[in-house]
């Protein structure tokens, strides 16, 4: 029986057209499953389901999730995590993907292509209008040039984001506006990506993706699950830095805002 599956182009490229078609036809897809994001039951015959391919150095595991939790995609994870998942699937141990060790501070960088800047990202809680709000702060390691230009002597990072719908921040004490089509992907309690709209109205694609999932604090995850919204701030290289405490991160954001070097947007949380 055909299944209500979403198979992204990235997943199809990894597993091949034949396997993807067999999944869609219901030959290899389960009827019921536990969502790899929210961990609650799902049914591929009754509700739209995303295929999520976890890929390690030597192993790949295909999992399923509610399409309302996360989109179909390929997620790079450590080989040790996948081996643990395989053991749980075959019954050698209970549970699913084990949590990755938490880095300190809570920051990560997306792996760059040769010659490109890295987008560093830091998670933290900001007190805004009497409520702790989950926030991500994005800062590149080098000036960002507009595509198709040499970028000599300039930095178009903020301009490019404003063109995408981010708004200039003048007062950190006020929450930024919503940015349609963008979202923050949290899967298995870890930060995986910031997603942006695909071209031509297609599926979302990663604007920033962690080369290894970023562990967030319990407080950050609780606040994000409560509000279902994440505040994403961005500043040019050298504006924020890696701050060891959230109060210092707040101070750095306020200084960047005062200097006209901060933009932000509120994005819905995808996953848990």
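Q: What amino acid sequence fits the structure above?
A:
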């Amino acid at each position: 029986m055909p299944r209500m599956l979403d198979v992204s182009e990235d997943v199809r490229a990894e597993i091949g057209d034949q396997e993807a078609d067999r999944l869609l036809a219901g030959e290899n897809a389960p009827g019921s499953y536990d969502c790899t994001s929210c961990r609650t039951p799902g049914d591929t015959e009754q509700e739209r389901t995303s295929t999520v391919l976890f890929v390690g150095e030597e192993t790949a595991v295909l999992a399923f999730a509610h399409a309302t939790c996360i989109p179909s995609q390929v997620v790079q994870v450590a080989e040790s995590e996948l081996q643990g998942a395989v053991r749980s699937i075959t019954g050698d141990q209970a549970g699913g993907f084990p949590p990755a060790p938490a880095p300190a501070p809570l920051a990560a960088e997306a792996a760059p292509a040769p010659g490109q800047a890295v987008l560093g990202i830091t998670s933290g809680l900001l007190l805004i209008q009497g409520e702790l709000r989950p926030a991500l702060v994005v800062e590149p390691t080098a000036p960002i040039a507009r595509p198709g230009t040499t970028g000599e002597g300039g930095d178009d990072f903020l301009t490019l984001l404003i063109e995408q719908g981010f708004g200039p921040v003048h007062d950190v004490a006020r929450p930024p506006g919503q940015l349609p089509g963008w979202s923050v992907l949290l899967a298995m309690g870890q930060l995986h990506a910031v997603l942006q709209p695909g071209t031509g109205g297609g599926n979302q694609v990663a604007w920033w993706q962690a080369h290894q999932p970023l562990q967030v604090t319990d407080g950050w995850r609780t606040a994000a699950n409560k509000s279902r919204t994440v505040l994403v701030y961005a500043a040019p290289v050298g504006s924020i830095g890696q701050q060891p405490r959230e109060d210092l991160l707040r101070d750095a954001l306020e200084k960047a805002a005062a200097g006209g070097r901060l933009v932000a947007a509120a994005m819905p949380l995808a996953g848990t």
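Q: And what stands out in the fold?
A: Confidence is low (pLDDT under 50) at residues 88-115.
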